[in-house]
Amino acid sequence: MARGTAEPGNFLFLNQPARIRAWAALLGQTRMAKPTRQHYLKNMAQFLDYLSETPPAACRLSSTALVLIRREVRALIRGIRRHVIVHEVRTKQAKESRLIRKASLVRCHRTAGRKIPALLDSLESNPSTRQQWRFYGFLTGYLTSISGHRCGVFQNLTIQEVEEASRSPDESAYVINITTHKTNRAFGAAQLSLNREEYSWFCRFLALRAGLPGGSQATYFFFTSRASPCRTLNKYFQSAWVSMGLPGKPTFTDVQTAIATHAKNAHSSEDRRKVAQFMCHDTSTSDKFYALHLGPLQARERRRLFERVLVEEEEEDGEAAGTESPPRKGRKRTETPVSPLEGTSRRTLPWRPARGKSQGARPLEQTEDSESS
Asked: Which secondary-structure segment (H or E) carries 177?
């Protein structure tokens, strides 16, 4: 919008609502997804808020013009919001169409648990990068099936965090705390809960890592030949998934989504919150964006709730029709006394003193009719 402007620093080029609408329409002509277009408009709205609160010295836009520009951008955001909601519902439908079944997750957990010790034996006898990548794939597949963590949690797992794992007094339970991950600001350190056998796999790999390329200089548990964190764990996990004979090629995010969905359908709200918190996953985001989408069974349950309401209303109407309500006892109406003198208004009614209170009584007000009589 500032193209061809002699002095863009004064921001007067923003005071063109028609060009703002044309820019938004141009975004719609691209292959940009609707949520991305909404993100662009929100960024512009945030910049205008900043410009309104702390305008630079060279800004020539008046406060009235800024109000009109911000109102125009907010109107564009409201206009695209309805399309974004439809897009989010369709995205949720596509995710649920490839939802990983519970049986596949259980099979992944059991098969990988049997395969990992054999891979460690192979690495101890004949260290090779090929077996190392296979070990990465099966171990991360096993861990994500019991924790639901994202790929970034495993990528950022350090050797020091493994060695400093918390343990129970009898050393039957271990917890590894991973401090660096995507949602650490909201959930703190991500945790891996392990038993004695599972933690022994980590210790065995640390003992043999010196014989692998880059292992002696590595600081991350899943390292490469350059001693850097492995960024292709998702690829190795998918290879292990296929080798176990499981359908599809899911990602770590797909596993997390599947676990969160199964927890939503099987657990109470409190248990679901605990599962999501352990995965460092915020359920309010998915509930907000995808609340309009229900599966066949969930929709049937909502229908039963509606039918139950109608049945209860019919029963209440039947009970009300068969039972006569008793007559209501009202308070007897007290009529206002009318003066026997015709033509006398309420203000000129004769005043009668109360019994026993004749002293200090005021004299009777005289009207014209009473004087004539």
From this structure: strand 173-178
Strands 166-167 and 190-195: unpaired
Residue 54: CB atoms within 10 A of its CB come to 8
Rg over CA atoms, the chain: 38
Neighbours of 96 (CB within 10 A): 14
Task: Give the integer Cα–Cα distance in Å for 159 and 229.
Answer: 11
Compute CA distances 16 → 5, 54, 55, 66, 72, whole Å: 13, 21, 18, 11, 10
Residue 345 has, within 13 A of its CA and on its CB side, a CA count of 2
β-sheet with 173-178: strand ranges across: 166-167, 173-178, 190-195
Model-wide pTM > 0.85: no
pLDDT of residue 4: 73
Residue 77 and residue 82: Cα distance in Å, rounded?
9
Q: Give the residue ranges of DSSP H helices in 5-128.
A: 17-29, 34-53, 63-97, 102-125
Residue 229's SS3 state is strand
Instruction: Report the C-alpha gap between 5 and 7 in whole angstroms.
Output: 6
Q: Is 145 helix (H, G, I), strand (E, B) or coil?
A: helix
Is the CB of residue 107 less than 8 Å from the CB of residue 246? Answer: yes
> What's the rounded Cα separation, in Å, for the pair 38 and 195?
46
pLDDT tens-place string over residues 47-92: 999 999 999 998 898 999 999 999 999 999 999 988 888 888 787 7
Give residue 79's identity as a one-letter amino acid code: G
